Amino acid sequence: MRLTCPLCGERDLREFTYRGAALTRPEGETWGDDWHDYIHLRDNPAGENREYWAHSTGCAAVLLVTRDTRTHEVLGSALAKGGGA
Amino acid sequence: MRLSTGGQIDRSRPLDFSFDGVTYSGYHGDTLASALMANGLKVVGRSFKYHRPRGIFSAGSEEPNALVTLGAGARAEPNVRATMQELFAGLEARSQNRWPSLDWDVMEVNDLVADFLGAGFYYKTFMWPKAFWEKLYEPVIRRAAGLGALSGQADPDANEKAFAHCDLLVIGAGPAGLMAALQAGEAGVDVILCDEDRTPGGSLLSSTEDVDGMAAPDWATEAVARLAAMPNVRIMTRTTVTGVYDGGTYGALERVGRHLQHRPGPLPVDCFWRIVAKRAVLAAGALERPVAFQDNDRPGVMLSSAVRAYVNRYAVAPGSSVTVFGNNDDAHRTARDLLAAGVHVAGLIDARHEATTDLDLPFYPGAVVSRVTGRMGLETVSLRTHKGEVKLQSDCLSVSGGWNPSLHLTCHLNGRPVWDEGIASFLPAPEGMPGLIPAGGAAGLFPTWEALESGRAAAARALEEMGQTVPHQKVPEAEGAPYKVKALWHVPGKGRAWLDLANDVTVKDVRGAAAENFRSVEHMKRYTTQGMAPDQGKTSNLSAMAVLGDATGRDVAQTGITTYRPPYVPVPIAAMGAGGKGRGFAPERLTTSHGRSLAMNAPMIEAGLWYRPSYFPRTGEKTWRQSCDREVGMVRQAVGIADVSTLGKIDIQGRDAGAFLDFVYANTFSTLKEGRVRYGLMLREDGHVMDDGTTARLGPQHYLMTTTTAAAGEVMGHLEFAAQVLRPDWDVRLISVTEQWAQFAVAGPQSRALLEDVLGRDLGGDVLPFMGWIPVTIGGVEGRLFRISFSGELAYELAVPARYGESLFTQLVKQAEARGGGAYGMEALNVLRIEKGLLTHAELHGRTTAFDLGLERMMSRKKAFIGQAGASRPGLLAEDRERLVGLRPVGAVQMIPAGAFLFTEGEEAVRENAQGYVTSTAFSPTLGHTVALGFLKSGPDRIGERIRMVDHLRGVVTLCEVCEPCFLDPEGERPRA
Amino acid sequence: MRFSGLRVLKEGLTGNRGWGPHWRDPAPKPAYDIVIIGGGGHGLATAFYLAKEHGLRNVAVLEKGYLGGGNVGRNTTIVRANYFLPGNSEFYSHSLKLWEGLEQELNYNVMHSQRGIINLFHSDGQRDAAARRGNAMINQGDDAELLDRDGVRRLLPYLDYDQGRFPIYGGLYHRRGGTARHDAVAWGFARGASDRGVDLIQNCEVTGIDVEGGQVTGVQTSRGAIRARKVAIVTAGRSGQVAAMAGMRLPIESHILQAFVTEGLKPVLDNVVTFGMGHFYISQSDKGGLVFGGDLDMYPSYAQRGNLPTAEHVMEAGMALMPMIGKARVLRSWGGIMDMTPDGSPIIDRTDIGGLYLDCGWCYGGFKAVPGSGYALAHLLATDRPHDSATGFRLDRFRDGVGLMDEEGTGAQHNTH
Which of C7, C128, C267 sits opposite B124 (nearest CB)? Predict the structure, then answer.
């Protein structure tokens, strides 16, 4: 698998670290369903998935990657900072 | 028998080699198989299950029978395909899976009792008595199974891995692959052309056809010369593409040094390539399939294409009287080539009634071979013709059941092949193989001209998809007669007919599996083991599926085939794991004091990827404990020096750096004054402790965080995630400076005096209070001095740019030794911290909370931080959680081994009664007894209680007193002195 | 038909014509008491124990492909009871006891081979962790021995003791650990369940779960609607999709785990060896192939295949630990879909929907759990009370934080376990 880092270009999978599903973090200070959802529950789709990857042995940028979990096809990647735009 | 003329062997270069201890001679250009055949050997191996004598069956990597062990000693290599092994002088090969010899194999008894050993018989027996499985049945089965043997010694050979990148990867250098490479090469794109043979050319090398008016092998040679002259084309011979992975990544195995008697210097045996290509043309050709009939596994029964390869390419007659049997025109080619080479053909048998021939030989249209005889080599071939049975005397039978496209690679990304009635085989799926374009035989286009043209067209398509212009490329004239085949999988009859030669799976086995309701192809495969041998069923899968379909009332298309998975040919672990041997498996990180520590005879131990000194032995010290106790005493009474550079150091800057630290730490840092240092506790989002460390404020918007050695990388990744994803709008920048700074702990009552000497300045309480830091200059070098303590003593850590580390360490140690102290290592460091109840990852093991560690008050209520909500879950705050305590022995046994469990006195040491466990333990030379840390249910409420410690593993049971997790200077006066 | 050596002899003498189907192929009935979604190891074992232990035979197992085609047919076949956290300890201990009588119970040779597992350690800290684990195993009533370096060398003379990047300090030896023939486990449970009246229905994909008034009433399938009083989701890596049919989100992310097998070789490796520093484990099958694997590929996937970085790392680890396997050739690689949970431990529980049950979250460790999981889920389905061995596998533990079983200590990101 190859991912495209917007800063470094297309690189081999081994340069990246998966950092979990791309979800919106609740900001509440007390535990509740929103936190349970965020930390534990997953849509876990068989299909398009939005996920975070860190270019950990490259530039350290965290990417927002859209990827098909059935085929591993990478449908898009962008810097997470800036909302993945 | 060697033919007197012809072939592509070099008769001027004879080579001696041995097989089973007997010396034979072959030629440069031979494979081991062709050389064995030239020397008249019929039997080269024994079958997996029934130990039946077996001969050479193919001329390529699909070989199911001719697997041998090459070499001896630690270099012995099992399961080498004789058909792929190039002959070299001095080659030593041995047959496998036989005892005592290839000719006399006692396990052949299995063949006599085969009726009891049908597919899956072992699932139905060997169950009584129960204890006999591991003791009797399994050892016997294990010894009988397996093929070749590993030497049991470390593989001494060199292997490599490499990356390559190209625009177009062409897999296979037969007619389709050569044309694809020519087309793409002329277009100027970067091309890699891989072929598993030593010489490019594929089927052309064994062909007597003309291409472009010249002999097929000559055309191939010329095409290769043209390609070799193109700077943008790289030809990789002896290279098999083994797997297709995502994103245009291909795995390939190059056999670099296997054809050499002596590999020069560092030349590897194999190189495993990771090839990244924008597009690939699959021109891997096709594999011929046999027809199953009674005893069709006898030595001398051979694929028709293999017969042609041996005759035409290697100038070897596979028999003195060859019978040719087929259901397609290819059989006729073989018969023609045999006659042309002067080999006697006993008969040509074509299963098709309508077949004709103009060859001068006994011809049997509409007939089939029903059985053969000849245990150690073919003797007779029995035909079933419309006139009745005919028996031919023959020592070789050429079989052609048709061609199967080599579409394996198209399945690696889950593409599912589709049945094609015209070729009676499966074709690559039109979808499910992004970037991979099949051509030639792999696409079911078998005639040479079609292969050439489809190779050109595939490359043209790839060029167009890459946005390149497609230059005109002439396709040479070549044979184009259409391929005609009439499916014939199995000739019905008595006895056993083999489908999978390598795993000894017969038609009867497949039918039996179907009768037992193993009707799915996957069930049949797994029950009979068909297709699971070293050849992965390359020549047997389709026939087996057809027989299964027949047994279950389905056609082949409905039956389907099993999934092909990487690798296409087996890949040595040493190749794919190249670099992992010895110390190569993981990087070695060395501190600047490493050399000095070694010079001081310190044993080095692994700490993550780092090496750290365990202790620094002095004359007269016989055990590590003596050194460790002395070093602890030095720190407690004088001064010790330890390299602490391995702790992670993260430089954090930006307008929001303070707020960021408040966010990532449970406690507050934005209020930290410049020049001050604070202990910080970091949680994971799920509320458990991730790491701890100290962070210093270097400037208004500038902090320096330290992490534990073990978690440095994890923390860095966590902070990057927090900064970029969770707080993207904040102005904060992070960088690891772990390797940029060397840092040394100077610990002990004399540390201040030592540093005042070294730095030439006053370090009194007001200048640098506990948990403060100051910039310092030492020998003109700017450094940082932190007053922090991981020993509980008056202590400092002095940091300088890494290039000055070694000299500073040397100087500090010298100064310390002059004051009755010296260097101390990890052992002493650990004792010092346990005496003080300070934490490491023995306690921060990922399941503990701030509450468990007695640090719940560090969780600020005034600001939001990562892990705050998670830590507030009721389960993480329950009073009866296992919480940190100190332990000291109060019984006769003075040991408290880490990993032991704690029980209430008088209760049995079983899980239900477990109250906690020991995490860290040390003999305290300061206190004169063992001290330990551990976790105990409701621990802080049980201080003073006596508790029973049980270590089943090491047979230690003792009584402990539960105490505060700090054994020394509980008020913390020493570091503040 | 009862299997035995005598029977094999008799059939051999009479042309092997007497062997019948190992399981029936019934058409689905319109209604069952219990429908189990998923004909893998866990689903088949559940059906078997429902029939055998609870006399519940009006049960169907619905399998979208072929029986045993999921992770039970694509794993590295290791069977062990070497967990150390309460909740896991008692469960795997119970499961191993079931394994120890499985051949006789099923009348099917699943080749359970208690050849011993050695978990190597490479530092003092790892020795302490291994000691804690071993003591926990003995607390539970299972076996464990702490080997020093020489003890390991006696058992595994072929490891690299001299040059290795991570020197071998010792190992935790679990003699009762071992392997089994994975496919046979599925087939044996299938045969046992089918013989007891359970309907095993292959090529029957569940496309919907019917819920009325908070109570499950049946399922929609590719072979028509089937009513059921109780429905259990036992679909491993596919649990998320199936649960979504009932409107549930699960604490599960599906990841790929690769495994590898070499060509057949004469016996060279008699135990199961695990190399934690390298995320590598290996054993040799009775057929002679070295069966080995490593860590997850570390990205969500349903593709049942992985990529090169993990494959290469696994083989590098193998070369680091036991360079004698260098000349063994990898024959085949494959991938399974692992249902990873936030603490790396499984779930066997009821759901908020009446009559809907979950058995999932087995991560990369579901094979050894097959009998235990089937036994515990059958008990829960039959009695609506968790079995004593599986009280820790609550679905709600993530929400309330009570009784988390994070053996790796890596926290709630699913793939880190």
Answer: C7
